């Protein structure tokens, strides 16, 4: 991945859990512009551990003066968001990748329908700015449990096309109603928990939406699990993956540098061949198809784990 | 670098010529004495000084004549340039990429002044000066992709990325190796590659697509492709097959060295920032066999490659009918000596 060293230029709390970070080039140079829905990977040198987390860009895609992200603190998470919230200071330098977009707008759409669950609002903040410039019709539904969770509310335009659904206030989003009233040529984009993405897919299927009009992004954090051993077939070395470490992170800690991009099971870049597998690969990615997963001959080290006697990779 | 632009034609009297310098910098596509498909992609981050890889968009002695030839082709058949409505943003992305890189790489030939969205473009070789508003198509004489590709050597396709695939949704295609934009427009990566023999079974396209879907901003890649063309003709399109197809039958043992050309495409792929589309310039270089053999290594190697090429590849590339004559001609320049690795002359 191409990276650049950027300076933390602003830290703004948006709610009790969510903070906005702004990055700028240390010498004020222009950053590459991007498309709405793009993310960057931020590298965090956390003691002996180098953490790398993906965050959607929320700033205006054509504003090359800086990048902004919004990070929700996950106290039970692996530590990346805690690092961002508690350790990062104004002026700190961090390595950030160039923007990559795995969730771009379908520019053929006659209308863009965006459905966000909680912190899943982030890619839409940049997409809204792109859509405004394209003068395309749109509608946004932002579903949260409580008003305090609606951290992005002040960042949203005050327009009748923007709908807030707060389930605590008895205003739960009615997906059937949202999806039923859309004209032909509408594309729907969902970002949020897997349950929301599945619910949109099911409702849309029931209402006869074409599959090609559905888009979603579910970035996974590497799930924790029992520790396991992996053999690197080319060198014969054996490494251990810790309970809160991903296989990709364990490889990197051992000095092996597989190619990667999203680190969330979506882009396919770190796909690795399995030489031997005596046991069960716990596939957590959205990249391999069911047949590939069942064959246990490929693994996505960024999110997938293993349980069993022996796993050897072509590394 | 001072460039002198040739006054030459790519049709009719075919006055196209390569200067000795142009022959030396010809992108000979074979790095060994045999050829088979592969995903031969490498980063497009410059290359040997003076080579066609040095700059991001190579401008050479054929620039002005090639643009004149494109004008003729477009006047006869406007459908060689098409852009589906959702591709205009990608067109602007590509215009920006070409203008900024050419102005940086060839400051004596091209200048770009930018004041916010108000741009001022100067193209000295083509005598063009244009003031326009970036992202406002009403301020250009035609769409942004057409505008910039009328000033950029090579064919150019803009590929939309969606549904885990790439879609040929815009392009300027006037110097193609027998494929049609009007036929392929709207097709996905597997559909437009369907006619290629062997490569599907080898999984080449699956691997190439996976790679391209992850192509990153600022990290363009390149590969070379090749075929054979009789006469230095850029427009070898299916639409005009009746004009150039019969010329294949004009090859004789006496004229093969002069009339048979090795046609090489320098293909580059660029992730575009605003649209997330991919730009796919396909730059065509032509070199006659008699010019190729002035580089002894190339004469030996081309003989071996064409002699041993599987028949279906020679058929697909459209020169099976002339292969025996081509191989006989090249054989006289192959003394059996070993060739050095890599594509460059010794």
UniProtKB/TrEMBL annotation, chain A:
Domain FAD-binding FR-type: 1-106
Residues of the signal peptide: none
PROSITE patterns linked: 2FE2S_FER_2 (PS51085), FAD_FR (PS51384)
CDD domains hit by this protein: fer2 (cd00207), PDR_like (cd06185)
Record-linked InterPro entries: 2Fe-2S_ferredoxin-like_sf, 2Fe-2S_ferredoxin-type, Beta-grasp_dom_sf, Cbr1-like_FAD-bd_dom, DmmA-like_N, FAD-bd_FR_type, FNR_nucleotide-bd, MRET
Record key words, sorted: 2Fe-2S, Flavoprotein, Iron, Iron-sulfur, Metal-binding, Oxidoreductase
2Fe-2S ferredoxin-type domain sequence ranges: 228-315
GO molecular function (one): oxidoreductase activity
Superkingdom of source: Bacteria
PANTHER family with a match to the protein in the record: CARNITINE MONOOXYGENASE REDUCTASE SUBUNIT (PTHR47354:SF1), NADH OXIDOREDUCTASE HCR (PTHR47354)
Protein name: Oxidoreductase
Natural source organism: Fuscibacter oryzae
Classification of source organism: Bacteria, Pseudomonadati, Pseudomonadota, Alphaproteobacteria, Rhodobacterales
UniProtKB/TrEMBL annotation, chain B:
Pfam families per UniProt: HODM_asu-like
Source species, domain of life: Bacteria
Identification of the protein by name: DUF3445 domain-containing protein
Organism listed in the record: Fuscibacter oryzae
